[in-house]
Amino acid sequence: RSEINPNSKYLKLFDLRLSDAGIYTCEYGSHTVSISLHVFELTISSDGHFLPNEVPELTLMQNSSHHQPNLIITLFNSKNNIVRPIFLQNKTHQKYILKLKQLEAADSGTWMCHVHSDSPLINQNIFFDVKVLGFQNPDFERKYATVDSTVVLSWHLNFQKIKWKEGFTGQLNWKQHESAVAHELLDFNVTAGGKQHETKKSSHFQFEIPGSKPKSTIEVKLPKVHFNHSGQYQCQLAYNRRYVQSKIELVVMKVSANPAGPLPRGAKMTLICQVSSPLPSNAHLCWERVNGTQMDNKKSKQREVKVEVNVSAAGLWNCHLIEDNERKISLNYAVEEAPVWISYVVIGASIGGSVLVFGLACLCIISGINWQRRRQRAKRMARARQYLLENKTCQCQQ
Q1: Fewer CB within 10 A of the end CB, N or C, for the chain?
Q2: Which CATH architecture group holds 2-132?
Q3: Cβ contacts of residue 226 below 8 Å, gap of 6+?
Q4: How many whole angstroms separate alpha carbon 113 and alpha carbon 97?
C-alpha cells in the first residue's frame, strides 16, 4: 500500500488505516529525518444513508505514536452551518462519538468535520457525505378542491438530486378519515440506476397516473373530484426495511340550495356551503353576496363544516374557503327568480289547495253529521220494535 517516488524520494501511503500511525524515518547517508504520522478515521452509521427523522452517529478515532491529544471538534452541515451534536467521549481521547439531531431531506449533501488541537498543532478538515432519502414535500399538507374540479396530487422525491444508487419501493394509499380502512391506489419501485415504475392497484377509485410528469415525482390526477374523494392520501417509501411517508389531506367543498331551482316571488331558500372535513382553527367558510353589503355575508364558526344563509331575492352568491385571510377556493351559486307565471301557478296552486282542503273538510263534516243521524234513527227504530214485542196482547172473540 505504498510507493516511493525515485526522483523526489516521497513516500506515498494508500488506503490509510489507523494502524499506519507512527514514526517514519528516512535515512540518506549520514542524514536522518523522522516524521510522526497522526491518523484520523471518521465513520458514520448506516454508511451515510438515512431516512428523515433518523439520528445518525459519527465516530472519530485517532492514533499516533505519542499521547492522544484532546481534540476540539466542530461540525458543519451541507449548508456550511455549524451543527451542535451530543458528544460521548472516552477517557483516553482516542474515540469520540457524536450523536446528531434528527435529519431532514434537506440535510443531504457533503458535511465537514473540523478537528483542532493546540499540542500537537492539528487543523484537519474531514469531509463526508450524508444522504437522506425522502420527500421534498412536508410530512403533512392540506389541499383544497371544489366539486367537479380537476386535482393533481404530487410527491417529490429527492433520489435523483442526491444520486441515490440503491433501489427502493413505495406505495400510495387513500383512506377517507384517520380511522378508516386504507386502500392502496398504486405502488412504485425505483431501481439502482434511478429508473422509476408505477403500477395502478385500484380499479374502483377514479384516478389517473399522468404520463408526463417531472422526474422523481409520484403523481395522481383526479379528473373530476367528487365529494367522497376527500380524505388522506399517504405516499410511503421503504428502504432497507425502514419507512418514511408524506401525507396530503384533500378537503372538498360543495354548494347547494334548499329548495333547489328558481326562487318564486315572495318565497325563501337556504344556500348551503359545505366541506368534507373539519377545518383548522385558522380557516373558515364565508357566504358573500356579489355587489351586496356586509349584512349579506355569513361566516362559519370555528371548525364548522357547513355554513347556511337564507335568501329571499335573486342574485349571485359566492362561498369562499379562507385560511389565514387568504382565499383558497371559491364556489358560486346563482339564485334565479322564477318567471311570473310560475309565481301565479304557485299562488293558484296554494289557493286551490286551500279550497280543496276546505271542501274536503266540509264534506267530512257533512258526512259525519249524516252518519250520526242515520245511527240515531236506527237506534230509535230498534227500541220501538223491542217495545212492541214486550207489550203484545191477544184478544179473543166473544
Answers
A1: C
A2: Sandwich (2.60)
A3: 147, 206, 252
A4: 12
- Top-level class of domain 141-251: mainly beta
* pLDDT tens sequence across 35-78: 999 999 999 999 999 999 999 999 999 998 888 888 999 999 99
pTM of the predicted model as reported, rounded to 2 decimal places: 0.74
Q: What are phi and psi of 267, to 5 degrees?
A: -95, 175
In a 3-state reduction of DSSP, which class is residue 355? helix
Q: Other CB atoms closer than 10 Å to residue 104's CB: what's the count?
A: 13
Within 10 A of 92 (CB to CB), how many other CB atoms are there? 9
How many other C-beta atoms are found inside a 10 Å radius of the C-beta of residue 161?
14
* CA-wise closest residue to 289 among 320, 266, 253: 320
Q: Which CATH superfamily is domain 259-335 in?
A: Immunoglobulins (2.60.40.10)
Q: Give CA separation, 250 vs 99, 134, 347, in Å.
A: 38, 21, 45
Domain residue ranges in the chain:
2-132, 141-251, 259-335
Q: What is the pLDDT of residues 217-240, one digit of tens each?
A: 999 999 999 999 999 999 999 988
* Antiparallel, parallel or unpaired: β 39-44 and 57-63: antiparallel
Only one residue has cell 529525518, namely 33
